C-alpha cells in the first residue's frame, strides 16, 4: 500500500444468514486510512539553480531561495518537515534552515579574485534529525561586477618625443591604462589634466 498513490479505501460489509442467504442487517461502510511512513525523500524543484549577487555585498544579502518538496504526509509526524543545510559553499554562503534562502556569509567578496561559486544545498526531512531522508541540489552563484577598481597606468612616467616640424594631428605616442572591471565599468577614457604643454597636445581614446 502506498499512501502517496491512494491514502484511503472504503470497504462495504454486510452480515448474511449463511443458510437462508439473506441479509441480517443493512450494508455498512468501513473506511481504511493508510498511515504514512517516511518513505519519500525531499526533492528540489530544479537540479541546478543559477543566481547572481553583486560583489562586495553586505553579509546576509539574499541571493536565491531553493525549494524542496516531500510527498509524505505533512500533517502526520515529521516525515515531510524539511530542514535545509549547506554542504558545499562555506564560508562564502549560508542557507536559512527553514526557508531555503541562500545568503552571503563573507564581506568584501571580490569578483576580480573569484567570480563563480559552486554551492550544494541539502534538504532533510524528519526535521533534520537522524534517520531522515535527504535530497540535494546545486546552485551556481556568479558575482556580478561593480565599479570598484580605478584605471591604473603600468608606468608612472612615459618618455615620448616629437619633431618640431610635426603637423597638427601627428601621433606622438600611445599609453594604455588597465581596469580589471568588466563591461561599462572597465571602459576607460583619457584626458589631459595638467602639464606645461596642455595647449600644445591633445589626447584621444580609441
- As a percent range, the share of strand residues is 25-35%
The overall pLDDT, averaged over residues, is 96
- Order of the strands making up the biggest sheet: 6-13-12-9
| N-to-C order of helices and strands | EEEEEEEEEEEEE
What is the distance, rounded to the nearest whole angstrom, between the alpha carbons of the first and last residues?
74 Å
CATH architecture of the largest domain: Sandwich
Poorly predicted spans: none
> Tell me, what is the CATH class of the largest domain?
Mainly Beta
Domain module tally: 3
Give the fraction of residues assigned to helices.
under 10%
Largest sheet: 4 strands, mixed
Supply Rg. Answer: 35 Å
By DSSP, the count of extended strands is 13
CATH superfamily membership of the largest domain, which one?
Cadherins
Query: Which structural class best describes the helix and strand composition?
Result: mainly beta
| Alpha plus pi helix count | 0
Q: Could you please say which CATH topology of the largest domain applies here?
A: Immunoglobulin-like
Counting copies of identical and different chains, the oligomeric state is single chain
Shape: rod-shaped
